[in-house]
Write a structure and sequence with these properties.
By secondary structure, the chain is α/β, with parallel strands linked by helices. Among the domains are: 79-179 and 189-205; 281-356 and 440-533, Rossmann fold (3-Layer(aba) Sandwich); 364-437, no CATH class. Helices cover 39% and strands 14% of the residues. The protein is built from 18 helices and 15 strands. β9 (309-311) and β10 (314-319) form a beta hairpin. α7 packs parallel to α8 (190-202) and α14 crosses α17. 30% of the residues are buried. It holds the Pfam family YceG_bac. InterPro entries: YceG_bac. This is Putative component of 'biosynthetic module' domain-containing protein. Residues 16-264, 288-508 form the Putative component of 'biosynthetic module' domain.
Length: 534
């Protein structure tokens, strides 16, 4: 075996016949040779997104799982570890910390000393296992270093899965005749990415599926050295891996119509069907405008406005957030503009303040329960909580509301009160915006994200009350969700500025300040004209 080596090359992935590809023994694949060691080729693929026919996509996954020598590792990952191995790993980790990072050779020597690297009866392949693990360590060291906070987690996981999975595969299969195919479905964390990198180096066939369009393995294989990338035309949600064969649906005509739909109504086409993005998440791009531009843009649908975009199941909605101070010299023009805003079908007028009810209950437990490891609100945890009031709404809208709540609580535009900590301010914000008034929920349900933008028009003359902190919290949420917001303050006083960073909305100063100015209702003629237009 002296001077002999293993050489593994990439067997190009054939989209239409990969089921047959993975069943081929190594000798029947390109590049196979036993001269000066062993050379063979393996299959690697990252299949991103889903096909036009979603049912067919999941049928293919189900059929793949039924094949001999195929392991769906994402569904059977064993995270257990024996106490003996855990202590051995801890000992090596402590040495690594004490010496501020071992060299790769010394690291592997310690692993071999503790018998933590699986063995193989073939001396050439046994050496290859060792060299492959060294390559994994080398990659991590070059990109992050052994002192990186994630190294301990990745190292521990690699050891777990090497013994819970790799070791049994090495004993069960004739790896040098026909390796098994290891499949991952869905999101991958860093440990899982590095384990699949290890498998690819060893000579296993690997296939990674992500119906949502994420490409986690590009962290390792950006240049597609080990895997070919197949990008399907659509991105979908990550459904559970099929344990039963999905029922076949859809005629040839149906599939053709789906393909036509994608061609005409894809994300960047600007030809959008009604409710095409009902399952997408809205996020606001608040526009900076002049006073006159505000009213020009207010009448435009979202996709007509500047900076509208759709990507990765997110709709970026150009919206307006304006405060109008004072009144114009031309009273007729002033009221015409106010009334035009209130007459939009998707608009709601607020004339009494506060228009929200401040929640006094302690939401500390609810808030803490919904935080992720980074200390930020987790949308899924919110939606699974017993306080969540919106189960009756469509899934897409629930996701949009939860995302808007999380993003609102991250914002730097919310001002703390004197003596209030940042966390206390976030808790107050969370407490208030998780209770959305019914009339606002109705506007949200009518919001087709690419079309007419819902509007909240607030007229506050201070005779009808004053804007409260809980009012401002809701406005911040609605701005994040993509609403157009217009606050009229004819006397020119601060209200919104007491609670929000004034940089997050436009302030337009008009000609004169007027006190006690009542809201002017539309004339009978205007109402008749409006009804005729309808």
């Amino acid at each position: 075996m002296v001077g002999q080596k293993m050489t593994i090359s990439h067997y190009p992935f054939q989209t239409g016949s990969w089921g047959e590809q993975i069943e081929k023994p190594l000798k029947e694949r390109p590049s196979y040779s036993e001269e000066e060691g062993l050379a063979f080729s393996t299959i690697g693929a990252r299949i991103i997104g889903i096909t036009h026919d979603e049912t067919e996509y999941y049928i293919k996954l189900y059929e793949l799982a039924q094949k001999k020598d195929v392991h769906i590792l994402s569904e059977e990952l064993d995270k257990t570890i024996s106490q003996e191995r855990f202590q051995a790993i801890q000992k090596i980790h402590m040495v690594n910390q004490r010496e501020n990072g071992l060299s790769i050779n010394r690291f592997v020597a310690f692993l071999e000393g503790e018998q933590l690297i699986p063995k193989h009866e073939n001396p050439l392949f046994h050496r290859h296992i060792r060299l492959s693990f060294m390559e994994v360590l080398k990659h991590f060291d070059q990109h992050y270093g052994f002192a990186h906070e994630n190294f301990r987690r990745v190292f521990l996981d690699l050891m777990k899965w090497s013994w819970n999975h790799l070791d049994s595969w090495l004993k069960t299969y004739s790896i040098l005749e026909k390796p098994p195919c290891i499949v991952w479905y869905g999101d991958m964390n860093k440990s899982q990415v590095y384990f699949f990198y290890y498998l690819a180096l060893l000579g296993f066939d690997i296939i990674i599926f992500h119906p949502g369009g994420e490409d986690d393995f590009s962290l390792i294989d950006e240049k597609e050295t080990f895997t070919d990338v197949v990008k399907h035309p659509l991105n979908g949600g990550i459904k559970p891996f099929p344990t039963e064969e999905p029922e076949r649906k859809g005629t040839v005509a149906y599939k053709a119509s789906q393909e036509m739909h994608h061609t005409i109504h894809h994300e960047g086409s600007s030809l959008y069907k009604p409710w095409q993005f009902r399952d997408y998440v809205p996020t606001a791009v608040t526009l900076k405008t002049t006073y006159d531009e505000t009213f020009i843009l207010a009448k435009e649908r979202a996709f007509i406005r500047p900076n509208f975009s759709v990507q990765n199941e997110q709709v970026r909605i150009p919206n307006l957030f304006a405060k109008i101070m004072g009144v114009s010299h031309s009273e007729r023009e002033y009221w015409d503009r106010v009334q035009t805003l209130t007459e939009y079908e998707e608009a709601s007028l607020v004339q009494s303040f506060p228009f929200t009810t401040e929640i006094q209950a302690n939401y500390q437990y609810h808030y803490q329960h919904c935080l992720n490891r980074d200390g930020e609100l987790d949308e899924e945890k919110m939606r699974r909580s017993n306080w969540w009031k919106y189960e009756h709404l469509p899934e897409g809208l629930q996701k949009g509301i939860a995302t808007a709540i999380a993003n609102t609580c991250k914002t730097t535009n919310w001002l703390t009160k004197q003596g209030e900590t940042e966390e206390e301010a976030k808790l107050y914000l969370f407490t208030q915006i998780t209770s959305i008034p019914t009339f606002v929920l109705e506007l949200m349900q009518k919001f087709d994200y690419a079309q007419e933008v819902p509007k909240l028009v607030l007229y506050c003359n201070e005779k009808n009350g004053v804007l409260s902190r809980s009012d401002a919290a809701l406005l911040l949420l609605l701005n994040e969700f993509g609403f157009d917001l217009f606050l009229y303050n004819p006397q020119g006083h601060n209200d919104l500025e007491l609670y929000l960073n004034s940089e997050c909305f436009d302030t337009h100063w008009l000609d004169e300040m007027v006190f006690g100015q009542d809201f002017k209702q539309p004339s009978i003629f205007r109402k008749v004209l409006k009804s005729m237009k309808k």
